[in-house]
Every structure is written in structure tokens, then in C-alpha cells.
Backbone:
């Protein structure tokens, strides 16, 4: 394996049309941050690049729906995303954006270089045109019926119901998202990157030279390459994006998939004047951290762009993760089915590292995984509190109790002591191997094993008993416990940096280096440690139930939004309608009907008389809640006996999609008996 002089880490640019959620964190940013922190602790030259992807159709759609400009949208969400990453301690060296001046210049220069070198193919094709909106439509502006699963709301590039990749011309009965009208095919000219020309090279570079890539990445690349590559458009007819910098390209911008990865280069330019050594020096190791939906862009398309340009290095690895689901359902921004990072911080202040721990311990590294709030609570309470926190607390409290915080000297060691010290020395190699192979879940498990070892050592040594008969022995036990605690600040630093900062405060020490992991002389005898606090706290059922309830409310709202509206009933004549006498009345009394769940007995002042009505609304309204309420009542309905009570009319109710009922009431107080016409 080549010994590189530096490492360039890129993380997929989150799309600036909404906040970031736990799926983003688990899939890309936590693993990238772990890797960056790990390398920095070794003293390596590392650059960790991030930024917001701010062009493309979804942003223009959101702007149109909200009645603002695309720039307003990206400004809003770029700031929200950037703050969330900062609050979670994602240690970017730069967090940029693709609307920056530097990016526009860099993307334009990149395109022009390929254009002037004849790397593009110019093609005129027929694309859908919206006559009402007077513009060509990008794929996301087109909606129609999926030819594969018959979903009537498939987009021109993808069906979100069956997951099929589509062309807009595949759709049945395509319509414009902008106007809702029919579309026509019209000729337009664009530039294409001829991926088919790079296919032989890609097969050798990926399939032969990078067999060490993760199976999910290698497998998806092989599938694409086996299926054959085709030229792919790099420009679009759109007014939001980087303008195509050639003559005759008015009204055209760089396609977002071409534009966005160049954002890594422009962000590096903003970070350092020596940017070229990170992008053009063969001694640089470039690693892309992405989610599985970005594999083809980072393994096939972007490398082909870099190869075409000719002066850039290629990625050494692309450790993509699979998807993280939420409570058994796919995370969805449009359905609000997510745990948003900024909302998490409001509900669990100071627990950034708890979420990062859980997401790493349950990372979707080899397959889609599921985040549940019960698992989140269990891992916090049973692992962080009961293992890591328990050991640290006992070690620190006993050092205060027995020695007033002064670390005792290491005396004569027993075989058990030597066994534990020997085990300590093996942790670094195991964690190294896991992290260097991008198995962060496995690496974190090893770090937690170190805390378990400390817990077991303390429990088996029982200094609280031994202190009564052998004080010298207890000094050795507590010295070893303090050394293990110091080692924990190293082992957990890449994973839980805010926690290790707090723990170093307890120990009264400065940050340690990675190569010191396993050293049992990190803290000298006589060193004074500080009084500790709890490193972690239990998360109670009530806090978890609040999160579960929030998701249940979201689920209910989604079901209502997606519910089918009942079709219109058969037409009636006006005379049929006029036969109904509907009046405004006021409920003056209400009681539950005995031995029923649904019925309330209502006494209603109709303005004509006071009458009894039996209504099936008891599941939604308590008697005391309806007294005094004005309602709409059908007064000329033939009486009917229900549960021995004669009901003289019907209260009009509206039924929501979820089956709940609401009164049909006037928006102002009216005289009882007023007619509804």
C-alpha cells in the first residue's frame, strides 16, 4: 500500500433545500469526521472539505412554491445546515457553497478546459417544453405515470415509489409541474460527456485496481459498467445555476451533477492557496465520503471528468454507506419523516455525542439500518451510562475519596494487573485496522471494549474492600484505573470529541496523541485530578415518548395528506336540495348515552323549538366541551329511536381523512333558527 504524504477528505455536499437529518449524519458526515480526527491525531496533513450544493431544479421548485427567489432558499438552508454541522462538531476545514464566486469561476474554467480540448459531444435532441411557462423543463419539472409500477406521481428522472431510474420520455401522460398542462417535444442543443469512451479505462481502474472498495460500492459500479455507459448531458435549459461559459449558450446552465463535485475543488481553493497539492499531487490520498445514492457520480462520472481534464488525481477510496431508516420507514424530507439535527439539539441539549455514538454503533455500513428511539435510549443508558460513564465515575470518585484527587503511584503489580496492561496495548492496532478499512462501527465497538475492560478490572479488584486491609494495593489499582481513563480520552476522541474534552477536564490533562493509546504511564503519580461530574445521564422514558409521539403525529398527518378524496356522488336536482331544512342551533345540554361508546344525547335550541338529538360524536367530544356550541342541524329529518331515545334531527359533521369528526359551524354567532341555504 502506498505511503501518502497527505489526505484530502471530501463529504457529499448536502442539498440546500432543507435542513439536515440523522440520515445525512450517519451516512456521510460522522464517518468522515471520525476519519479526519483520527488522521489529525496522528499528526498527518489532512484537509476535510464540506459545503452546500445550491443549484438544481428542486431549489427552483421550492422557491416558486414559497414565492421567494432561489437565492433566498439557499441562503436560508445553507446557514441552517452549516450551524447544525458546527453544533455537532463536524470538523470541516472549510464549509463552502456552490453559489460562491470562487465556485462559479472554478466550474466555468473546468467546463471551458474540457470544451476547448474537445472532450464534449454536442447533440441536438427533443426534450419536453411547457408552452404555458415558455421554457424547456428539467426532469423534476415533469410528472406522470411510471411505466413500471403505475405510480401516477413519478418524476421525469425517477419514480420514488418503485425506485426506478427513468427518462422523462418514459412517463405515461407527462404533465408540467409548473403549469399542470400538457407538454410538447421540442429540439434543444446540449453538451454531453461521452462516458462510453471512458468505459474501458473505468473497468480497469475500478474493477481491476480497486477490488478493495466496499462490496456495495464495487458492486454498484460493476453493475453500471456491465450495463454499458452512455453519453450524459452536462448542461441544462434553466435559469438557476452556473451559466454555460460558451458563445450561443444563453439560457443554459451547467447540470447540477457536473457542477456540484467541482464544489470540492472550489472549496479547497477557498481554504488554502496550496490547493493544487491536494488535487494534483500523486502523493495525496483522496477519499470521498458519500451515501449510496451518490456512488455513480463519485466513482464513474466525477472520475471521468477529472480524467478528461487531465491534471487531477483520482479518489483512492469511496467508502459509501447504505441508507439509515427511521422507525422502520425510509427517511423522507418531503414527508417530514426525519429527525432533524437542529430539532434534536433543542430536545437533547448537550447530547450531540450521544447521537453520534448511536449513529456510529448502528451505522448502515454494509446494509440499510434502522434508527429507533428505544434503541437510542438503550444504547445511552446501557452502554454510555452503565459502562463508559460508570467506570469513569467510579475511578474518579474513588481517587478523590482515597487521595483527595492526587494520583497514587503504581506499586507492585499482580498477574491480573499485568494481564490488563497487556490487553491495553492491543487496542490501538485493532482500532487502527478498523478505521483504516472504514469500519467505524467496529472501531467504536473496540473503544467501548476498553471501557468494559476498565469496568471489569475495577469490579474484580474491589478496591473499596481491599482498602481496609491493603492500602498499597489500592494505590496500584487506582493508578491503573486513572491510566485507563486517560486512554479512553484517546480512544473515543475521533468518535465523541465533546465527551473526551469533558473527560480531559476531569483528569486535568491536555489532548493526547493517537500513538499514546495503550501507554499506561500517561499520568504521573502526584498529578492532581479535578472533581468529576457525571459524564453521561440517563434518558428517561418520558423524553423518548415525546419523540415517538412527534413521529406518530407526522405519520398521521402524512396519512391524511395522502388519503384519497371520495368521488363526487351522483347529481341531484335543486328541488332535492331545497327539501332539506338546515338551521343554526345551539347545544344547551349534553350527556353520554349509557352503555355506548359513540353516542351523546344533545338538547338543541333550534330557534323553532328545543329538541333532542342523538349524535355519534362521543369518541371525539366530551359532553362538557359541546355545551354552548352553535351547530348546523337538519331539522326536518324523520325522527328515529336510538337506544330508547327519540332523535329529532341530525347534527352536520365533517369527517377528516383519518376518520375524526368536526362540527360544521358558522364563523360568527348567528341567531338560532337561521337557515343554511
Residues:
Amino acid at each position: 500500500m502506498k505511503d501518502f504524504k497527505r489526505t484530502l477528505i471530501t463529504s457529499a455536499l448536502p442539498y440546500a433545500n432543507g435542513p439536515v437529518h440523522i440520515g445525512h449524519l450517519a451516512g456521510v458526515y460522522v464517518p468522515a469526521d471520525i476519519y479526519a480526527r483520527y488522521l489529525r491525531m496522528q499528526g498527518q496533513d489532512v484537509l476535510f472539505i464540506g459545503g452546500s450544493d445550491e443549484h438544481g431544479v428542486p431549489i427552483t421548485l421550492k422557491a416558486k412554491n414559497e414565492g421567494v427567489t432561489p437565492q433566498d432558499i439557499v441562503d436560508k438552508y445553507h446557514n441552517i445546515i452549516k450551524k447544525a454541522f458546527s453544533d455537532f462538531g463536524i470538523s470541516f476545514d472549510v464549509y463552502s457553497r456552490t453559489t460562491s464566486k470562487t465556485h462559479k469561476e472554478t466550474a466555468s474554467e473546468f467546463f471551458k478546459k474540457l470544451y476547448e480540448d474537445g472532450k464534449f459531444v454536442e447533440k441536438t435532441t427533443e426534450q419536453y417544453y411547457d408552452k404555458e411557462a415558455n421554457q424547456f423543463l428539467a426532469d423534476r419539472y415533469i410528472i406522470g405515470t411510471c411505466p413500471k409500477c403505475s405510480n401516477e406521481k413519478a418524476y421525469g428522472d425517477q419514480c420514488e415509489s418503485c425506485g426506478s431510474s427513468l427518462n422523462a420520455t418514459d412517463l405515461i401522460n407527462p404533465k408540467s409541474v409548473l403549469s399542470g398542462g400538457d407538454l410538447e417535444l421540442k429540439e434543444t442543443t446540449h453538451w454531453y460527456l461521452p462516458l462510453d469512451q471512458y468505459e474501458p479505462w473505468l473497468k480497469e481502474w475500478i474493477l481491476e485496481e480497486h477490488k478493495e472498495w466496499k462490496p456495495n460500492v464495487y458492486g454498484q459500479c460493476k453493475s453500471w459498467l456491465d450495463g454499458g455507459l452512455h453519453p450524459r448531458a452536462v448542461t441544462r435549459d434553466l435559469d438557476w445555476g452556473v451559466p454555460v461559459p460558451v458563445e450561443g449558450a444563453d439560457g443554459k446552465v451547467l447540470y447540477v451533477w457536473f457542477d456540484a463535485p467541482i464544489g470540492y475543488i472550489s472549496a479547497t481553493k477557498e481554504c488554502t492557496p496550496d490547493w493544487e497539492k491536494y488535487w494534483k499531487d500523486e502523493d495525496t490520498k483522496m477519499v470521498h465520503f458519500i451515501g449510496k445514492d451518490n456512488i455513480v457520480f463519485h466513482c464513474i462520472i466525477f472520475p471521468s471528468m477529472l480524467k478528461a481534464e487531465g491534471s487531477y488525481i483520482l479518489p483512492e477510496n469511496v467508502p459509501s454507506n447504505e441508507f439509515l431508516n427511521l422507525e422502520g420507514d425510509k427517511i423522507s424530507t418531503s414527508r417530514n419523516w426525519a429527525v432533524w439535527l437542529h430539532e434534536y439539539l433543542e430536545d437533547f441539549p448537550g447530547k450531540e455525542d450521544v447521537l453520534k455514538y448511536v449513529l456510529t454503533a448502528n451505522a448502515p455500513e454494509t446494509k440499510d439500518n434502522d434508527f429507533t428511539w428505544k434503541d437510542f435510549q438503550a444504547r445511552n443508558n446501557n452502554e454510555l451510562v452503565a459502562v463508559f460513564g460508570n467506570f469513569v465515575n467510579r475511578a474518579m470518585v474513588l481517587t478523590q475519596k482515597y487521595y483527595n484527587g492526587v494520583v497514587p503511584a503504581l506499586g507492585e503489580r499482580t498477574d491480573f494487573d499485568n494481564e490488563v496492561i497487556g490487553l491495553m496495548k492491543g487496542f490501538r492496532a485493532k482500532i487502527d485496522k478498523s478505521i483504516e478499512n472504514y469500519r467505524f462501527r467496529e472501531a467504536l465497538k473496540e473503544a467501548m471494549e476498553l471501557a468494559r475492560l476498565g469496568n471489569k478490572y475495577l469490579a474484580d479488584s474491589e478496591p473499596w474492600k481491599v482498602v481496609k486491609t491493603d492500602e498499597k494495593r489500592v494505590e496500584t489499582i487506582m493508578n491503573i484505573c486513572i491510566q485507563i481513563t486517560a486512554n479512553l480520552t484517546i480512544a473515543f476522541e475521533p468518535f465523541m470529541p465533546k465527551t473526551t474534552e469533558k473527560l480531559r477536564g476531569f483528569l486535568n490533562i491536555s489532548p493526547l496523541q493517537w500513538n499514546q493509546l495503550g501507554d499506561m504511564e500517561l499520568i504521573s503519580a502526584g498529578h492532581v485530578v479535578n472533581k468529576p461530574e457525571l459524564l453521561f445521564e440517563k434518558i428517561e422514558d418520558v423524553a423518548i415518548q415525546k419523540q415517538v409521539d412527534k413521529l406518530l403525529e407526522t405519520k398521521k398527518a402524512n396519512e391524511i395528506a395522502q388519503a384519497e378524496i371520495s368521488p363526487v356522488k351522483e347529481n341531484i336536482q335543486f328541488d332535492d336540495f331545497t327539501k332539506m331544512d338546515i338551521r343554526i342551533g345551539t347545544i344547551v345540554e349534553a350527556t353520554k348515552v349509557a352503555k355506548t361508546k359513540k353516542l351523546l344525547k344533545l338538547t338543541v335550541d333550534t330557534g323553532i323549538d328545543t329538541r333532542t338529538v342523538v349524535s355519534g360524536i362521543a369518541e371525539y367530544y366530551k359532553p362538557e366541551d359541546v355545551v354552548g356550541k352553535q351547530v348546523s342541524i337538519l331539522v326536518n329529518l324523520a325522527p328515529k329511536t336510538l337506544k330508547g331515545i327519540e332523535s329529532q334531527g341530525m347534527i352536520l359533521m365533517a369527517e377528516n381523512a383519518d376518520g375524526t369528526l368536526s362540527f360544521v359551524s358558522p364563523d360568527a354567532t348567528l341567531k338560532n333558527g337561521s337557515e343554511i341555504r
Summary: The mean pLDDT is 93. The chain is about 40% helix and 15% strand. Residues 84 and 575 are 62 Å apart (CA to CA).
